[in-house]
Hints:
The complex is a heterotrimer of chains A (307), B (320) and C (343). Chain B contains twelve helices and eight strands.
Amino acid sequence: xxxxxxxxxxxxxxxxxxxxxxxxxxxxxxxxxxxxxxxxxxxxxxxxxxxxxxxxxxxxxxxxxxxxxxxxxxxxxxxxxxxxxxxxxxxxxxxxxxxxxxxxxxxxxxxxxxxxxxxxxxxxxxxxxxxxxxxxxxxxxxxxxxxxxxxxxxxxxxxxxxxxxxxxxxxxxxxxxxxxxxxxxxxxxxxxxxxxxxxxxxxxxxxxxxxxxxxxxxxxxxxxxxxxxxxxxxxxxxxxxxxxxxxxxxxxxxxxxxxxxxxxxxxxxxxxxxxxxxxxxxxxxxxxxxxxxxxxxxxxxxxxxxx
Amino acid sequence: xxxxxxxxxxxxxxxxxxxxxxxxxxxxxxxxxxxxxxxxxxxxxxxxxxxxxxxxxxxxxxxxxxxxxxxxxxxxxxxxxxxxxxxxxxxxxxxxxxxxxxxxxxxxxxxxxxxxxxxxxxxxxxxxxxxxxxxxxxxxxxxxxxxxxxxxxxxxxxxxxxxxxxxxxxxxxxxxxxxxxxxxxxxxxxxxxxxxxxxxxxxxxxxxxxxxxxxxxxxxxxxxxxxxxxxxxxxxxxxxxxxxxxxxxxxxxxxxxxxxxxxxxxxxxxxxxxxxxxxxxxxxxxxxxxxxxxxxxxxxxxxxxxxxxxxxxxxxxxxx
Amino acid sequence: xxxxxxxxxxxxxxxxxxxxxxxxxxxxxxxxxxxxxxxxxxxxxxxxxxxxxxxxxxxxxxxxxxxxxxxxxxxxxxxxxxxxxxxxxxxxxxxxxxxxxxxxxxxxxxxxxxxxxxxxxxxxxxxxxxxxxxxxxxxxxxxxxxxxxxxxxxxxxxxxxxxxxxxxxxxxxxxxxxxxxxxxxxxxxxxxxxxxxxxxxxxxxxxxxxxxxxxxxxxxxxxxxxxxxxxxxxxxxxxxxxxxxxxxxxxxxxxxxxxxxxxxxxxxxxxxxxxxxxxxxxxxxxxxxxxxxxxxxxxxxxxxxxxxxxxxxxxxxxxxxxxxxxxxxxxxxxxxxxxxxxx
Lengths: 307, 320, 343
């Protein structure tokens, strides 16, 4: 990293591009390095991100969705929001683009060893959590119980759906999926139930009966966390999602007994250089690109409320 | 005295509960400067002042502060002639309602081009400046110099045809005497006598100093788009570097966007740190609008904005 | 090395010699606009201006800088070159505040996290001949932020005007090489210089005191004073474009057909879209939040990260602000304020 100019994108080729969600706004790309040496140099850990670079249009900071245990490619899940991402969505397999990274810090995989891990994700922010989950499953003996809680507005907006079904079948982790109860697949909550999405007890989500094999619920993510009640003792909670989801999930976790230093977030910010020089992505004295994007809730409490 | 009258009016407005905020001017922290002041209660009105350095167009602030008003509340604003016309312009564009502003008009005598005085005395620094009836007296470390106000006024102030604000809820006469200035559009008329090549040269030379700081845009009361065309990436209308063609396009497009809405207040030239004569570019277009559509910017609150209205009388030069 | 002397009338010849070995950039004045541009002779220099409108920062960190050149269309573009090379250059007549600002920027661009090669290449190829200020301006306050009118921080050579001569003192080895051909100075000149130095520091009028302010600011993030302070700010960005320590930049690609460049441009945190997310979320949509960011960044965050205040007291933001926002007043207000109790 020190010899290479950190501003130059490394050439990669799009090996695979698939549409991830029903609204077609989210696509997942598998990228392969053009030069094997670049691939060997690109060592990363779950939680880090890279700047996806389209020379001629610009760059976009996107969390790495593949785990370092998956060799030979990098996976990125990208939502179409602006110039760069729109151009990216229109590129086909075989197109050449660039990657700068890996950047930022990573989830505390060392500190979590020997502990339970609860992964809470919302919407397409689940992307780096996929990286984390696959990493944990590849080092299964190092970690105790793994619970994954993932919610989206409706089933069509869940990412990695074929993998979700696989994970639901595993017996070394528990998976719970939630869809917003107002926006069931085609309408009201009863129809969602008919399609296999059980409502949680709305009066008191903690009273929900989690039957065997049941993992699909209509619930906002914070309610789903209340229903699942993951025990706080010796457990880390990794929370990643839109600001509103985080805002309501953290109090639930705090009430369950999670101390701020064991609630871990991954933040988003507008970024350009990705290496802490352009001054854009700071929260207080910390740059989200360089000192983050992973912060514990305790660290966030020490920073100005500016995100 | 103007400032006493302003303070009296402002105090009355606060006492009668008519305004939540009065925007005016107070003494600046540097010689030859006055600074926009935001008075929020009757006991602060003594900060208000008036002199020949009150050059900022306070109408630029109105949109920002009006957005925080509750139903029935209003903002008082001290307006010179050009400022009042900007207020009319903004009213016509629906940026706020008439009952949300209380216009305290001041019959303006013209503002002094302090940068010109500063540059003439440079590299010496100005320690103190005093305004007298017809002159500005400036003291540097080595000497004291006098500058005739009528000579050192801003070019657009010299040509002003509307010193008295066209709308006002209260009016204050500025100090004694009428200012005999130049004829309206005098400077631009001279510019029009240049050949197209000469005009282009002038434009290229002026904009060669531009550093794309966008002070001109932010100082302008009618530049208020939430996404300015220079910030757009989809599509990427104009490059963001100092490449001369990009700089020139920025100024040309901004001039076109403000044509027919510009009141020639000169805030853009005043804000520019590189001393570029920006006002003349848009001013020329405003003169064109005035002549083509018989419409003086911001004078008649009832008249439709010329580039947003159709009239049978519109000249169709260029069309059959 | 002994201090050297250069009679004022020989300045032109000295500059001509310097020009032979590389670019020489010095303060000039054209139509009332003062700035640092390359010069070829001593006549073009305008050393009598204490603070130029824009400083020499642009020669280490240009306003527009090509980071990468590339070839190929959007679906096949690859980098074809980066512009890291730098030609030797001498920044002549740089005031101590501007020289200090470059040292402050070094901490950001060259650190153990990442090294900005573009900046570093230019930095290594640059020599700086400072010019002390015999007459600080009314708006200068370098002494309040750790500098001084005769400071030598960041200089290779420190030059002072003493009567009819320039006194040149080498501060670094690089500096020694630049002035080794000159005559040794008479010790009496040094004594006069010390007197001038003392006079200059005492003549600074601006009363600014930032003692303890960085630590105090940490607890003031939610204080309502920021709103009041920003009332008259227009968000025009002039202060950031002229500030010698401002370093925020934007990166844009410009391409025509199958060739293009990725360019970085100076940007300003005072513009609303600076932190505008693609999702539409805008953490700093109010002006006072951006003003707060600017002041906190310079007087608190930079101190926490790098140990120095990112302000050199040059006063440009004060003299050029169209609405007369005065940083000295703002700092005074912040220093004197009793912090209100806000969670």
